[in-house]
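Per-record layout

source: Phytohabitans maris
name: AraC family ligand binding domain-containing protein
length: 191
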Amino acid sequence: MPVYKNGDATGRPDWVEISDTRPLTLDRDTAARIEPDDLKSLLVCVSGQLTVTHDKGRVTLNRSDWLVVPDTGALLHAVVPYIYGPAVEVLHVRGTWSAISDANVFQARHDVEVERHFHDFHEYWAIVHGSGPIETEGEWYDVHAGDLVATRMGDDHHMPAVEAAVEAVAIETEPHGLKRLGHLHRDVRSR
C-alpha cells in the first residue's frame, strides 16, 4: 500500500526514501533546533517566513521554499513582523534519499485538482491539512493530515477536486531513466 501513517515503517517497500515527517509551528518568540542524526533532513516552509541558520550561513525561507539541512543541524526562527502575526508552519522531513530535486506546497480544492500524471522519479506527498481521495497505482485511498503518499517512478497518480481544501508538500527525489522533470502524461490515444 502506498499510503503510510507518519513514522510507521510497517510494510514499506525498500524504495521508499522518506522515514517520517514532522510539522513544526513557530510563533514570534520561538525557535526550533534540528539536531543531526543518522537520517537526512529537509525543511519545507508551508506558510509564513523563517530563517534557518547553520554552519554554512543563514537562509530565509518563504512559502514553498525548501532546504536540505547540513549534517551539522540547523536553528530555525520565525520571521513574524507583527506582534499578533500568524505562526510559521514548517514541515521537517527525514529520510535516506540520495538527492532531492524539488519540493513544493500544493493544494487540491473544489476548483483545483491535481491531474493524472507520472514522473521519472519517486514522488512523496506529505498531507499537511485536510483529507480527501487520491488515486495511485490504480487504487483509491482516503488520505488525512499526517499521511505520507509514496508513488514509485512511472506510476500514475492524481487527486481530484475536493469540497474542502487538502494541502500537502510534494517531495521529488533524483530523476532516473529518461530523467524528465515535471508532470508527464500518457498518450491518451493508447487507452
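summary: The two ends are 25 Å apart (CA to CA). The domain at 3-13+99-177 is CATH 2.60.120.10 (Jelly Rolls).
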